[in-house]
Design goal:
With 260 residues, the protein is α/β, with parallel strands linked by helices. The chain has nine helices and eight strands. The chain has an eight-stranded mixed sheet with strand order 1-7-8-6-5-2-3-4, with helices on both faces. It is globular, with a radius of gyration of 18 Å.
């Protein structure tokens, strides 16, 4: 089935970036050991998160209920709640940000989405956010995504963002560096995050086709693909300006159709 293909606009909507920057100051982790990771994450992803707010505004009605999987470090969960959405987060170790959860009055449940069923009723949520998480799954993505499908309402929306393996850098890395990655290269360091951060790093990154094909087999219908991100190099920026599908990230908008 055909789906729409778009690319990210030049800048996020007015106010979205300010929301994220405000949350960065309020969502400090409980331990000093997590602080370095948190601030590096915030620096690298604050613009992406601002765009994520824009996509939620575009695809989810304000009265809709949202589930964010992998809610830590709370920046998107907190921002969406601040603008009036009803958001429930799940995370493998929310206690890492226990004080921030309380101070921001957020709902975040402790769930290992790779091994545990989501503690919600069938069709409970109008939208699921599954951002920068699919590439971290290491046990059984079928189980995890079937649970996501189960708790999505008929006609509900899945917003899933992930690195684009078939990006410009992804192809350069594969052809010239003998390494299959777009964003994260060292598999040892990624598995070591289980010890140092309490969550898995990237197990592998995927092409857009692979993720869309997988989601269809789960039962979702692909509605739109949005190519995202930019490069610091002016030369690379010119290339992705001509070929947006070579951008480093992608958001897939999928629907749980009523007939299904």
């Amino acid at each position: 089935m055909k789906y729409r293909v778009n690319q990210e606009p030049k800048n996020p909507e007015s106010g979205s970036l300010e929301l994220i920057e405000d949350l960065i100051a309020k969502a400090e982790p409980d331990t000093a050991g997590m602080s370095e990771w948190f601030h590096r994450y915030a620096q690298n992803h604050h613009r992406r998160l601002a765009y994520d707010i824009d996509y939620v505004r575009r695809y989810v009605q304000r009265e809709g209920r949202i589930l964010e999987c992998g809610a830590i470090p709370l920046l998107l969960t907190g921002a969406l709640q601040m603008i009036g959405y009803s958001v429930h987060g799940v995370d493998i170790a929310p206690e890492r940000f226990a004080k921030a959860i309380v101070s921001l009055n957020l709902m975040v449940s402790k769930v290992d989405i790779e091994t545990e069923r989501l503690p919600f009723s069938d069709g409970e949520f109008d939208a699921i956010i599954f951002n920068e998480l699919f590439e971290h799954l290491r046990i059984n993505p079928i189980f995890t995504m079937k649970e996501v499908y189960r708790v999505t309402k008929p006609s509900g929306t899945l917003l899933l963002s992930t690195p684009n393996l078939k990006s410009l850098d992804g192809m350069i890395n594969f052809v010239f560096r003998d390494r299959a990655y777009s964003c994260v290269s060292d598999i040892y360091d990624e598995y070591n995050k289980l010890e140092t951060l309490g969550h898995m790093g990237h197990t592998r990154e995927y092409t857009t086709f692979e993720v869309c094909h997988f989601l269809r087999k789960i039962g979702f219908t692909i509605d739109e693909v949005i190519y995202r991100g930019y490069y610091q190099s002016k030369g690379k920026q010119k290339v992705i300006g001509l070929f947006p599908s070579l951008r480093p990230f992608v958001t897939i908008v999928a629907i749980k159709r009523i007939s299904e």
